[in-house]
Amino acid sequence: MPELPEVETTRRGVAPWSVGQRVLSVEVREPRLRWPIPADLPQQLCGQQITAVERRAKYLLFRMASGSLLVHLGMSGSLRVIRDDSPLLRHDHVQIQLSSGDRLRYNDPRRFGCMLWLGSGESHSLLEGLGPEPLSDVFSGELLYVRSRGRRGPVKPFLMDGKVVVGVGNIYANEALFMAGIRPDRPAGKISLARYARLVEAVKQVLTSAINQGGTTLRDFVGGDGKPGYFAQQLTVYGRAGAPCTGCGRPLREVRLGQRSTVYCVACQR
DNA sequence: CGCTGACCCTGACGGC
DNA sequence: TGCCGTCAGGGTCAGC
Questions:
Q1: CA-based nearest residue to A148, from A213, A75, A197
Q2: List of domains in chain A
């Protein structure tokens, strides 16, 4: 479910109700996520005030005086603010009671996400070695060009490699490559600097646009405020295999690259 | 180091 | 109606 725009949408939805609040209690109903939720997580959080909610790559970081709560939504996770008495649902694995009376609920059917504690000053292996944020100035055509030299693998998995740049998942990699007119299976090391500059602009544009529309809702994504995202209506290639290309009308082709479905136009993308 | 495929897990969907 | 295979927005890890 969540790519960077969905995680950022969640952050924006959750932050106003979280920042300044104190954690009263933490109920872990199912600790078996990607990595088990540490048994001492509740005691680390309890009594602490949330000072900020930040995002690095697709990780959410709830900042507190003695450390940070690190949350990843995996493929199917969501984090919502509960402001009424709505009942707990299937796969609501963690509930955090805030001093305002509101609650944060973490739901994740597939349990590919994680929820970990990061002490102040500690680094975490999950956050080390990550590439730059895609919406920062560090992410440039030059960066992709330099990092790709000598690489024979296709450009799409390269673009989705978190050590190169973070936050470009399968939906937006497909969309950005279409926007930039680049075939997803072209060897990364053979693409020119000028074309990489186009690709970077496309990534920034598609991510920014998706964030502004509250992310992409497929199946049941909801942001922190419980509202769906509206970017799905603008997807040009993802999920449209066989349908006509919005540029030339020819049917879009689907292949698998790095075990991910890849959709592109054989005419518009070279 | 770069690349590939297996794997973690539940649920939805299509074919029979 | 039920059963079975396939696929899904994430990422790590082992092996070559």
A1: A197
A2: 4-119 (3.20.190.10), 141-264 (1.10.8.50)
